[in-house]
Amino acid sequence: MVDRYDVAVAGAGPAGAQCARDLATRDYDVVVLETESEDEFPRQSNKSTAGTFPSMMSSFGIPDDVVMSYTDDVVLESPNEYYESYQPGAVLEFAEFKRFLVEDGRDNGAEYRFDARVSRPILDDDGVIEGVRYNGDEEVYADVVIDATGPAAPLASALDVVDLERENQAIGIEYEMEGVEMNHPEYADLRRAMMLRLDHNIAPGGYSWIFATGEDTAKVGLCYIQNDRHREFAEAGKTVDGYLDDWVSRDPRFADAEQIDEKVHRGSAHIQRPGQMHTDRFIAIGDTVPSIDPLWGEGIHKGMKSARAAAATVDRCLTDSERRIDAESLAVYETLWHRDVAPRAESRLALTELLYLAPNERYDRLMRDLQKTDDDILAKANRGEKAGMARLLHLDDVPLLAKYARERFGV
Ligand SMILES: Cc1cc2nc3c(=O)[nH]c(=O)nc-3n(C[C@H](O)[C@H](O)[C@H](O)COP(=O)(O)OP(=O)(O)OC[C@H]3O[C@@H](n4cnc5c(N)ncnc54)[C@H](O)[C@@H]3O)c2cc1C
Q1: Shared-domain flag, residues 308 and 233
Q2: For residue 19, how far is its CA from the centre of ligand 1 (angstroms)?
Q3: Do the interacting molecules here have an ipTM over 0.95?
Q4: Does 56 reside within a domain?
Q5: Containing domain of residue 377, as a range?
Q6: Which atom, in ligand 1's list, is nearest to the CA of 301?
Q7: Residue of 197 and 383 predicted with greater confidence
Q8: Angle subtended at Cα 51 by Cα 242 and Cα 240, rounded to the nearest 5 degrees
Q9: Packed helices 345-357 and 398-409: angle between N→C axes, nearest 10 degrees
Q10: 341 or 391, which is more confident?
Q11: Which residue has the higher pLDDT, 6 or 230?
């Protein structure tokens, strides 16, 4: 007997599981294939700090049970300055959040197969995908196939839909810690905050973070892309683990802190310009695209929005009396992605590249500027609006901009 569904989704991350939730709610026959075993799920894929905002929680009906802590502020730190901004948020228990998405999808009729490692597409005589092969020779057929395997991307790569480039791969690691001095006199009060720190001495060409999960507990981590920028500031031979250990041993906030039950989360994501995201009968979502926000690494909300855009696209195409699922019909996904998931993705990526190229002193100045700037300018810059970005630049940034232009355009 051939297994046949309306939609087959590879990967039960936030993107895949949300897509299945949306499709099952609309009564489509959907199956999700997840490589990990159900008993331990999620184990290796329990990678995320999972800081998010109320807009995500309310748009996707996420219950309070999966929240570790609520925060009031976002704090940006540079080596010698900091800037606080009121912005309520939530740090999720990522594993519980993933399990909630699976259970809720199942309650709505989605089928899950764990221990199901997707390896490649099944193609028809015209080279169009009509199903997937998993665990060697097992097969599932579907009208539409969705790759939501994050950076693994076995289907999107085989179909030449996305090319996740190694030089754009950001790697990250974090510890869950207790005994952290969250209100140290030399630093901002982090007791109810998500803090991101720009400092090449800690995370060369990237950033580090402390996200409060309790009075003296926090998720503490860092990430960077191993590109030229990283190498410019990096110490030879030092690994991402080494950088985190070094920060933890030097920063006075961790003087009496310890790792909780050896809890370590690690993973990667690609930070690159958006390209193609679909073809005949196929859509890529979440970190497979990749949808992650280049500036601050917010991937959960972006991935779930891309999942919703994909589900809406599939719904539209399968509602059509002819069930048209060719590339042209599915192209509405890319329109929705650029409109709703990551508007101005190009400018935000340019801002990110410029930001991580800047030296430490420039970060201190950025914090001083932000302290004097109204939140509206920051919000505009953050959205990638040129007017907001220009307000944060100075005349003596010309060499920095020239360096950026040389790297980006070779001029
Ligand atoms: C250290 C770190 C910290 C982060 N912090 C934050 C944060 O604070 N806030 C935020 O919003 N984002 C954060 N992110 C980013 C966020 O976690 C990701 O963007 C998000 O998880 C992407 O979701 P996804 O569903 O696209 O992919 P993934 O989460 O990668 O899920 C992919 C799923 O597919 C499965 N899979 C993989 N290969 C296969 C295969 N061949 N067959 C079947 N299944 C497969 C995996 O097991 C996994 O369950 C962080 C990421 C890292 C690494």
Answers
A1: no
A2: 14
A3: yes
A4: no
A5: 345-409
A6: 11
A7: 197
A8: 10
A9: 120
A10: 341
A11: 6
